[in-house]
Amino acid sequence: MATKEKTKKEKKEKIKKTPKQKRRVALKVFLSIILIIALLAGILAVLNLVGVKSNAAFVRDNIEAVKYEKQLNPEKDDKGRYTFVTDEDFKVLQITDVHIGGGVMSSAKDSEALNAVAAMVTAEKPDLVVVTGDVAYPVPYQAGTFNNKESAKLFADLMEKLGVYWCLAFGNHDTELYSYYNREQICAMYESRDYPHCLMQAGDKDVDGYGNYVVNIKNSEGKITQSLFVFDSHSYVDGDYFGIQWKYDCVHKNQVDWYKKTVKELTDENGGEQPKSLAFFHIPPQEMRDAYKEYKDAGNKDTENVKYKYGKIAEGGEIICCSNYNYKIFDAFRTHGTQGVFFGHDHLNNMSLNYKGVQLTYGYSIDYLAYAGINKYGLQRGCTPITIKPDGTFEHTQENYYQSKYTPVKDKEPVDLEHEMADETGGVDNPFAEE
């Protein structure tokens, strides 16, 4: 009996793997895992390419240039700033939060977003489109890709095919930390010769962010009637590198200093008269939250500081997702001629309030992708036409996409136009919002 047990033990010892053999097995397992990952990545890349090519073909083969009676063409002044010249009304169209995923998982929704933008731009015939952030949304579990350049390129190709002048403020999603391309690289693509209708400029290298610049409107006498300031409001702060805690950034102090300096330069160029201006960026300023709180505390009635114009705060919990930091850009606006500020970021909010003499306005979003189920709703989707008068005053409205005047290339998708998304789903609650 003992002999049999000994024999079994000897056999087991004989088949034991040596350290060298164990390393070989481990290496084979590791290489097999790498091979499987590479194979899956390759398959996903091919599928993503198919989706992107499909939408690129849609833009190439179906989108036509906007037909203008007389299109205004900007020129650069001696300081490299784009300038339009007109003695008539100047029309700006704010588009925000397009959220193109650029991958196989988002291909159908990307097509709807491109379709909607094309329909509204074609009907509105603006002199300039200003996009207040989040063109791209390369979130892998919704888009199937990390490639934010594909999203940016799809949108830029669309705008170039439309033949409309446009510019952009970066949003928090345009260049996520895990995205393939950073702000500098995406900005360089927009500024390239491939997109002559894009007026985005990287801006001063000594100023934080990419895309701090100004576009001017002058009359035939050379007077600046309106300056359009665009800012990078950045992404996340305080270690929230992936944005999962919703700790958002804002316009920084050296950007405020740049704005003040630029206004002074423009005032000097304007014969000592400070030009009126509008500002565009992605993340709303703290003062929008302050204004809404004052308005709400007053029973949804105007106060000495707040005057209601239109719209709703429809995010779940009536949230305004702004930064907890404030470098006083709003105070600078009040003293340096900025009459209105336009932003996006919160896709269900579309309210416009005048706060202490400055109009604060959420643009309608485009988003079909980022908020779960938002493609099934339509009350929040549209654009914001802004008409600038020859005297520098301005008017603006919110225009819902689901109107007969907006005729897309493809049929509009069926949506719920009876209910707010927040009413049905509770919106998108932010657990980190301040009470």
Which structural class fits the helix and strand makeup?
A: alpha/beta
What's the number of helices?
10
Q: Tell me the Rg in angstroms.
A: 26 Å
- How much is the average pLDDT? 90
Shape: globular
How many DSSP E strands? 15
**What is the H/E order?**
HHEEEHEHHEHEEHEHEHEEEEEEH
Residue share in β-strands: 15-25%
Uncertain ranges: 429-435
Largest sheet: 9 strands, mixed
Share of residues in helices: 25-40%
Note the quaternary state here.
Answer: single chain
Strand order of the largest sheet: 1-2-6-7-8-10-12-11-9
Keywords:
435 residues; alpha/beta; 33% helix; globular
Written account of the structure:
With 435 residues, the protein is of the alpha/beta class. It is 33% helix and 16% strand. It has helices at 2-15, 19-62, 107-124, 140-143, 148-162, 183-191, 253-269, 286-297, 329-335, 421-425; strands at residues 75-76, 82-85, 90-95, 128-132, 166-169, 213-218, 224-230, 277-280, 306-310, 338-343, 352-355, 358-362, 382-388, 394-396, 399-400. The longest helix has 44 residues, at 19-62. The radius of gyration is 26 Å and the shape is globular.
